[in-house]
Write a structure and sequence with these properties.
Layout (H helix, E strand, L loop, with lengths): L1 H37 L47 E3 L6 E3 H4 L4 E5 L16 E6 L5 E7 L7 E2 L6 H9 L3 E4 L4 H10 L3 E3 H4 L5 E2 L19 E3 L1 H10 L15 E2 L10 E2 L2 E5 L5 E7 L4 E6 L2 E2 L10 E2 L1 E7 L1 E3 L8 E3 L3 E9 L2 E9 L7 E4 L6 E2 L4 E7 L5 E2 L1
Parallel strand pairs: 3-7, 4-25, 7-8, 11-24, 18-25
Antiparallel strand pairs: 1-2, 3-5, 4-5, 6-10, 9-10, 12-22, 13-14, 13-26, 14-15, 15-16, 15-17, 18-21, 19-20, 21-22, 22-23
Helix pairs in contact: 3-4
Length: about 400
């Protein structure tokens, strides 16, 4: 009996020792993975001052955003000159490597229904248009030139007025399906485009997951799961011989610098509320330290799925125009007037100013002016454009 008990105890010790060794080995494997993966996602609101497109190699490129930089910034030496090989972006006024300065922008239709959030890549967009679609829901058209993100989306279907936003910047329209009027305008204007409905599985892919920190959980609905990205778009543009360089019309970009002294502010704009509908309100909160507007939606900060970072912009343009429902359309689609002229607001630096806009045709670039007809000047940085209905009111606080 004693021998049996000793044998049992001996086997128990061997088991415990083996278990301890196994657990120790597992910890040695898992701990580095834990700390490495922690570094893959930036902390919310983390901001970097870097040149567009060419961040240091040791940092994940998706973590970088471009903040407001005055044009007299001393990039090199005492003369304020740019480093060799850099110029200023026509869309942001910020330093951009010459290899990308003439790159054709992507104009990607981005889903904004709550079940689609968070979006991927929007923190890297040079310009974002937001406007009502059907169902009192807004959609975005994100303009990417300085940087094509690794992942963009989710991509949604186009409407006819979205095509006009792409033409404002000579952009290649990126979308997944379109309304009947959207298809008609794509066909009639012959805009360069990439349709996920035709290229799914090659240029577009599906991802039905959410980040672990997202408000949405579970499985992303199929209709909100279409994505594309830099590698796929660059290869596709080359394979199809789509023109890859932006046109030479200066109106495809903006003017940047200091606001003229004679332009009078309408007042403070530290909190800007744009009520697109009872369901979808866009709010911008001014950060005096960075001079950026932090972008929010109904449930708080609007964060990019690639970085967990809150989206921020330097300028907000509000284009006031007619937005009405299409008569007899069962889906509740909209007519949005994008041509002609109208009034609006520029919001920058914690203040807002009256402006006006002009667009000669659906394929012409938009032109912006101050009220006295001087060409509009923006602060260097990214811009959010709210295409907003005349029947509602923007609040500036």
């Amino acid at each position: 009996m004693r021998r049996i008990l000793d044998d049992i105890m001996s086997r128990k010790k061997i088991f415990l020792i083996s278990l301890g060794v196994s657990l120790g080995a597992a910890l040695l494997i898992l701990l580095p993975i834990f700390f490495l993966t922690r570094g893959e996602v930036a902390e919310p609101n983390e901001v970097y001052e870097v040149f567009a497109e060419e961040p240091p190699e040791e940092e994940p490129v998706e973590r970088f955003v471009r903040i407001r930089v005055p044009l007299d910034w001393e990039y090199e030496g005492d003369d304020g000159s740019l480093p060799e090989g850099y110029t200023l972006s026509i869309l942001t006024g910020l330093p951009l490597h010459e290899d990308y300065a003439q790159r054709r922008p992507l104009a990607a239709v981005i889903n904004n229904i709550r079940r689609s959030l968070p979006q991927s890549g929007i923190a890297s967009a040079d310009v974002i248009y937001e406007v009502l679609a059907e169902g009192d829901v807004t959609r975005m058209v994100a303009i990417f030139q300085s940087y094509y993100p690794e992942k963009i989306g989710s991509i949604r279907s186009a409407r006819d007025y979205f095509i006009d936003f792409a033409f404002n910047h000579d952009g290649i329209l990126v979308f997944h399906g379109a309304s009947p009027s959207g298809h008609n305008r794509i066909r009639n204007t012959r805009i360069d485009n990439v349709d996920g409905g035709a290229w799914e599985g090659r240029v577009f892919w599906r991802d039905r997951t959410y980040p672990h920190w997202a408000l949405n959980t579970g499985t992303r609905p199929q209709e909100h799961s279409s994505y594309t990205g830099r590698e796929q778009m660059e290869s596709h543009i080359e394979d199809r011989n789509i023109r890859s360089e932006i046109g030479d019309d200066p109106n495809f970009g903006f003017n940047f610098g200091e606001l003229p002294e004679e332009i009078e502010s309408l007042g403070i704009a530290h909190r800007v509320v744009v009520p697109f509908s009872s369901l979808y309100t866009r709010t911008f909160i001014f950060d005096e330290d960075t001079e950026l507007y932090m972008v929010e939606y109904q449930n708080g900060p609007l964060r990019d799925a690639l970085t967990a970072e809150q989206v921020s912009v330097t300028n907000i343009l509000i284009q006031i125009t007619s937005v009405t429902r299409v008569a007899g359309d069962a889906e509740g689609r909209r007519n949005v007037v994008t041509t002609g002229s109208g009034r609006g607001y520029l919001v920058t630096g914690g203040e807002h100013f009256p402006v006006r806009w002009e667009k000669a045709s659906h394929t012409a670039p938009m032109r912006w002016y101050f009220e006295d007809d001087q060409p509009l000047i923006l602060s260097a940085g990214r811009t959010w454009i709210c295409v907003f209905q005349t029947t509602a009111t923007v609040t500036f606080e």
